[in-house]
């Protein structure tokens, strides 16, 4: 490999070239049937993805944002309720909460996993909320808003600590919507149940995005929800299709959030390859771990016991992120940042009244995180070059081998 060859952050071209004949066959099928919305292709994908996630029900949707929003609405979140999530996630998580009519409450993250910290969730529920003696509802002490749901985000492809979160949710009667938009196929070992669980199968509803850059990506916008609850699935099917119980009979006011049959067909084709792609990502992540070792100045991702991440992203931390990104860019290595500004510090959420210092862990890691190249086709020699350049930047010797 030439040392001048550009290393992309993500390769979306190669898998589509490799699957081109299968994907074009889907196009022909759709064009010849004119079945552009709903129909057999959507139903097939819903069956296959439900099976993949170990749930009986899947509802295909137009986006991952719709998935979180419709899940909250169908599960019973009401206008003026409060929904808990983390400030370290993409804004789609909180947009969905607001668009469902709820208030946003943030909980800080665990510094090593970057997911919701159950201890901080417990503190919020015990210290910042109380159970109203008259109504029996859990209310926020300041706003008096009913606290009805929690949205743990399985960030970067690793599941949050669901045993602890589900225990608190059960105690306080909270709806649990898993934001699994980056975690297709991620697994979590439930000590309570003594078995592995798939992302999207543990809460009341799991929400997925199939944005093109995801581990399972469409060729456009798409999303889905998974659930064990038949009634919730029925409600979400109505909400996605203008509230229709059947054509032109509207039981509720809904939305246009349907999954296109063309995207569903593409996703079914790609789903057959997802297990192999996931293994390739996991192997690439292990190579990064091995190559970095315990390098001073670089914090690599932690995989807790009982977690099988799918590495949507491989995120490291360094003190001088801007310097590292420039150093890598000069070496023709692309990187990303996920996410540079915590949500509670975004202009869009100034009205929530949060201030700097409210979520110290999120604020600490946000200026340090860098996402390195990660995709199934990433080659060993490319990773060795990435790691060489990172080590060079932090003042450590380069690798003596290309593993």
Describe the structure.
The radius of gyration is 22 Å and the shape is globular. It has two domains: 13-107 and 115-268, Aspartate Aminotransferase, domain 2, CATH 3.40.640; 273-393, Aspartate Aminotransferase, domain 1, CATH 3.90.1150. It has helices spanning 13-18, 20-33, 40-52, 64-75, 92-99, 118-127, 162-171, 230-240, 261-292, 321-330, 360-365, 380-393; strands at residues 57-61, 82-85, 103-106, 129-131, 138-140, 147-150, 175-179, 187-190, 195-198, 205-209, 223-227, 244-246, 249-250, 307-308, 314-317, 369-372. The protein starts with 12 loop residues before the first helix and ends in a 10-residue tail after the last helix. The mean pLDDT is 97. The strands form five sheets. The protein has a seven-stranded mixed beta sheet, with helices on both faces. Strands 9-8-14 form a three-stranded antiparallel beta sheet, with no helix packed on it. Strands 4-5 form a two-stranded antiparallel ribbon. α4 (64-75) runs parallel beside α5 and α4 (64-75) packs across α8. The protein contains twelve helices and 16 strands. By secondary structure, the chain is α/β, with parallel strands linked by helices.
Write the layout of secondary structure elements.
Layout (H helix, E strand, L loop, with lengths): L12 H6 L1 H14 L6 H13 L4 E5 L2 H12 L6 E4 L6 H8 L3 E4 L11 H10 L1 E3 L6 E3 L6 E4 L11 H10 L3 E5 L7 E4 L4 E4 L6 E5 L13 E5 L2 H11 L3 E3 L2 E2 L10 H32 L14 E2 L5 E4 L3 H10 L29 H6 L3 E4 L7 H14 L10
Parallel strand pairs: 2-3, 2-6, 6-7, 7-10
Antiparallel strand pairs: 1-11, 4-5, 8-9, 8-14, 10-11, 12-13, 15-16
């Amino acid at each position: 490999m030439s040392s001048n060859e550009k290393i992309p952050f993500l390769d979306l071209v190669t898998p589509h070239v490799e699957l081109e004949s299968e994907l074009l066959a889907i196009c022909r099928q759709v064009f010849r049937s004119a079945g552009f919305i709903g129909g057999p292709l959507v139903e097939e994908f819903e069956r296959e993805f439900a099976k993949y996630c170990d749930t009986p029900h899947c509802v295909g949707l137009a986006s991952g944002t719709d998935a979180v929003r419709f899940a909250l609405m169908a599960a019973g979140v009401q206008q003026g309720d409060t929904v808990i999530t983390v400030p370290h996630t993409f804004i789609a998580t909180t947009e969905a909460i607001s668009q469902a009519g709820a208030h946003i409450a943030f909980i800080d993250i665990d510094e090593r996993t970057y997911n919701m910290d159950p201890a901080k969730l417990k503190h919020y529920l015990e210290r910042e909320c109380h159970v109203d003696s008259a109504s029996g509802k859990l209310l926020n002490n300041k706003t008096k808003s009913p606290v009805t749901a929690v949205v743990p985000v399985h960030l970067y492809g690793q599941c949050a600590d669901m045993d602890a979160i589900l225990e608190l949710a059960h105690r306080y009667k909270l709806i649990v919507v898993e934001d699994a938009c980056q975690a297709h196929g991620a697994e979590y070992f439930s000590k309570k149940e003594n078995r592995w669980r798939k992302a999207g199968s543990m809460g009341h509803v799991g929400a997925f995005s199939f944005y093109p850059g995801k581990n399972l990506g469409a060729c456009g916008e798409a999303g889905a929800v998974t659930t064990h609850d038949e009634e919730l699935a029925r409600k979400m099917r109505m909400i996605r299709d203008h509230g229709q119980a059947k054509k032109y009979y509207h039981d509720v006011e809904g939305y246009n959030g349907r999954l296109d049959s063309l995207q569903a067909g593409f996703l079914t084709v790609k789903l057959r390859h997802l297990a192999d792609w996931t293994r390739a990502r996991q192997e690439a992540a292990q190579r990064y771990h091995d190559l970095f070792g315990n390098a001073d100045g670089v914090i690599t991702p932690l995989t807790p016991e009982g977690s099988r991440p799918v590495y949507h992203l491989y995120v490291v931390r360094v003190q001088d992120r801007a310097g590292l990104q420039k150093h890598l860019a000069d070496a023709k290595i692309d990187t990303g940042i996920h996410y540079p500004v915590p949500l509670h510090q975004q202009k869009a959420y100034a009205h929530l009244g949060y201030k700097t210092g409210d979520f110290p862990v999120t604020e600490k890691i946000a200026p340090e995180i860098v996402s390195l190249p990660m995709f199934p086709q990433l080659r060993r020699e490319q990773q060795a070059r990435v790691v060489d350049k990172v080590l060079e930047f932090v003042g450590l010797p380069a690798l003596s081998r290309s593993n």
